[in-house]
Amino acid sequence: MPSTPVDNKANAMAFYDPMFNQCDPRSAIERFTGNVYIQHNSHVADGKEAFIIYFERMATTFSGKSVPFERSVAEDDLIVLHCHRFGRTATSTLASTPSAST
Fold it and tell me: Which of 9, 35, 40, 56 has the most CB within a 10 Å radius?
């Protein structure tokens, strides 16, 4: 059965939450990735173990952080999660700037 945009959005959020908010990147990787994991962040090497090491270190470095979802958008197989990170600092991980005409 093919997945729907609603399913895809739920899966993206279910991956992201344990990775950041529960500080358990290993369970996120084990549950939601296949045999090969290719990372889009140039600061993190490809591969499951590199992902786990990086995000476990991030959990320690930014202990007490939370990354709540502000918005989520799903269209076909594309998902956008708009989140803010709160902890030592608050920073937007994805933000849009209104155009001059708005």
Answer: 9
